[in-house]
Amino acid sequence: MAAKAKDVPEEKELKEAELTVEAAPEAEEAPAEEKATAKAGKRSAKSQKEAEEKAAKEERKATASEDQTEEKPKQTAKPTRSRLERRGKKFRDAAKLVEKDKAYTLVEALELAQKTSPTKFDATVELHINLNVDPRHADQNIRDNLVLPAGTGKDVRVAVFDDEKAASADLSGVENIIKQLDKGEINFDVLIATPAQMPKLGKYARVLGPRGLMPNPKSGTVTTDVAKAVQEAKAGRVEYRVDSTGIVHIGIGKVSFGQKKLLENAQAVVASVKGNKPSSVKGAYVKVAHLTTTMGPSITVSVSDL
Description:
The chain is of the alpha/beta class. It is built from eight helices and nine strands.
């Protein structure tokens, strides 16, 4: 009996020892978890949690966009409408009277231009001539002025920048015109000046130049014969100059002029343009010409008829 009593405490000690050995690894592993997370910074528990939430959010967005892409039906592109289809009804109706690939004679084009004017007001008839010139060369920078036989159909206000009064001028006097220019007022369509008074207009070049009102000897607005210049301006003097692409744009009268007057003006312009042909131009001088009215369709004019 005494031997059995001694064995019981030994068994208890063995069991306690086993439990201690099993618990020991867990105790050793606990500090490892603490080392994986820090109190602050990228390795902190808070930062890791935010990173996980952000990754999950991006994943949800990617999944949603994929679903929308799959569900969204393909849209067929609408065909682009032609330039004529985008115009107004009146213009389209007028354009039906013009044959697209036909080159009309000058007489036919003028007659057709009057029929195809879609405006209620008295439209201007315009002539556009594309020349075989390069305006970058001085001798090919075509520029001239002429008096249209039938006039322009406009009431032209003429101002004379000189102390002597011109008989038919609407405005005259150096000081009078300077006062108006200082106020930014321009109450004239043509400004004529004498060579002696031109230096006084130098400070207003930025105001008059962009409007085409700066007097120039080539346009006949700087002259000593003021009376003649005023008379020609009132009668219908016009000036033309090729643009950067070598095209002359000029109004030759109003629709109400009728075919006869418009033809006289058109022939005068064509004669002036041809008379200024540079000697350096080889081959065809006039490439193509078109006639039109304000807001009206374009009519091709036969070059051989000009």
